[in-house]
Structures are given as C-alpha cells and as structure tokens.
Amino acid sequence: MRVEWQIGFWVGALALFILFLWIFSGVLLPFAAAFVIAYLLDPFVDRLQRLGLNRLAATLLVLAACVVVVASILTLIVPVLSHQFAEFIHALPDLLNKLQGLIIAAGGRVVREYGAPLLQRFGLATNGPDVRASVGDLAATVATWTAAFLNSLVARGFALISLVSLIVVTPVVAFYMLLDYHAMIAAVDNLVPPRHRPVVRRLATQIDQAMAGFLRGQSLVCLFLGVWYSVGLSLIGLNFGLLIGITAGFLSFIPYVGSFTALIVAAIVAIVQGWPHVYLLAMALGVVIIGQLLEANILSPKLVGDRVGLHPVWLIFALLAFGSVFGFTGLIIAVPVAAAAGVILRFAMASYRGSDLYSNLPELRASIETNIIAKTDQPKATEDQ
Questions:
Q1: pLDDT tens digits for 97-115?
Q2: Which of 47, 255, 288, 366 has its CB surrounded by the most CB atoms within 10 Å?
Q3: How far is 158 from 90, CA to CA, in rounded Å?
Q4: How far apart are CA 312 and CA 318, in angstroms?
Q5: What contacts 305, CB < 8 A, 6 or more positions away?
Q6: Dihedrals φ, ψ of 53, to 5°?
Q7: Phi and psi of 355, rounded to 5°?
Q8: Global confidence as pTM
C-alpha cells in the first residue's frame, strides 16, 4: 500500500473517531468512566489471578473492595463536605464584601503613605479621594470576577453531583470490562496486520506506560494532596478547610491547578478570617507550600516518574479542549488520548529523522532549486531563438 493511502486511511479513521465521540458524547460517560476504572484496577485483578483465583472471582473481589472503600469514605466525608459547601455558598457574598473592604483600606493606606509622597517628589499632584475611589473600583471588579468564577465552579459542581445517577451503570460496565480486559486487548491485536504487529505492540507498550504512569501515579498524588490539604487546613482552624482541601486534591489531576487553587482560596479565607493578624495566613500558606514541595520533589518523581512523557502544557490543553467539546466525558478521555497522541507524534518524528527525506534534505533542496532555475531559464532560451 502506498504511503499516501496509509496516511489517508489513518486521517479518515481519526475523523470518524472524533465524529463518533461528538455524536455519542451524551451517552459515553459511563463507558469512559468504566474504562478508566477497569484500567486502574486491572493490575490488582492480575495479581489475584497469579495467587490462584480465577478471573471472575478476582474481578468480583476487587470491585467489591473498591465499592466498600469508596462508600465508607463518602459516608464519612459527604455529610461534613455538604455542610461546609452550604455554609461557603451562604458566606460567599459576605466574604467577598469583607475582602473588598480590606483591599480598599489597604490600597488607600499604601497610596496615602507611600504613593502620594512619591508622586509629589516627581511633581505629580494626587487626589486622595480619587485614588481611593479607583482602588475601590478595582477591588469591586476583582470581587465581581471572583464571584463569577466561583458561581461557575458551583454550577459545574451541581452538574457533577448529577453524575451520581451513573452509580449503577458504571460499576456494571466496569465489571464486564475487567472480566474481558485481556480478551479485548487480544481482539484488537488480532486486527493488526502481522507485518505491522511489532511496531504497533511497541507503540502500545509506550502508550500503556504513559497512561499508567499518569493515571495511576497522579491518582495517588491527588489522594495524598487532598488528605494533606484537608487535614492541614482543618487543623490550623481555617474555615472550609475540608472543602478547600478536597477540591484542591481533585483539581491536582491537572498539574499545578490544584495547588494554585488551594493557595488562592486558602489565602483569601485566611486573610478575611484572621485580619488584622497574619498568623492564620502564614500557617495556611505553609500548609499549601509544604504540600507542593512534597508533590514536586517526592511524590511525582516516585509515583509518576519521567516515563509519562506528557508535558504539562500539552496535558492542560488536552483537558481544556476535550472538556469544552465533549463535556465531562472529554475530561475522562483527554489523558488517554493525549498519551497516545504524544507517543505517536514522537514515533512519527523519529521515523522522519530516520528517513531519506530528512537525511537527504540538502540534496533534495538543491535538486528542487535546480529544477526551478531550469524551468525559469527555459522561456528565456525560447525567446532568444
């Protein structure tokens, strides 16, 4: 088969895959979630099989243990979390108003004590009330943007709560995927032409390493950070500490987003709660910064490692792009698709560097330039005749 036909085939297959996701994005959520669950739990089922259990018993045991653990955690956390969430929504307007007042007061004091003398030294006149009004307008704008962002986050939170309806469908699909996991992999492998199987299997292994390194490793990182932020912020007495910690741990699936969210929200709550003292702010920042240092220097290198091959910028783009197009289903499939695309792109670049097109590029360019010059000189020769 010619290279042009192969490229056309794979481009067409990619277009059909995207069209399929777009058409059925409304019903793919339980299947995508079940695939992630099956992928995460398959190593435990394989280990139980090596210990002597058959595939059915191992699948039932692992899923039952997973359901018990998740149900126990939800039973302990959901009542407290829902209570803090309701209190946070009720206290949000007052929190933003106090924050605006503190910004106006601090800004006015800075302008009065430092800004006005500095401007007068340069010969510029200042009007104190106007400057304070400008600072107040800026604070109001920031508060409005913050409220809009939090309201959007709350709205999406309620959308995620509606996903509880999938609690029956997802475990059933995950059970069958776990039970037939290796059979499905073998079926896909049999569809690959025998002459291409070594290359495809090598790429599949690299994709599996990237997905396993991120999905399984980053899930453990998110779990640790959620526990660290929740316990740490609650122990120092910060309001809504459990809510902030769990939200930050969940958002830590996207690199740097969880820690940044914990830093900003915890700092805002600590400033309003502890003003005019800064002890609570310092302790909140200490909890978040220590968690980030542990994640960057110990957790990610040990649990995720360097084999992932997913640049944070590429990963953030994939999550935002798939999330905006396919909704919550897109967020679930973004990481596997990004991992596969990264491996395939690296393979394509390596193949390009090893091809004659890359190694003979100077000769090819010289040949093209020679042909262009020859075609340009040909009309002139005809005119001279």
A1: 777 777 776 666 655 555 5
A2: 288
A3: 16
A4: 10
A5: 213, 217
A6: -80, 150
A7: -90, 165
A8: 0.65
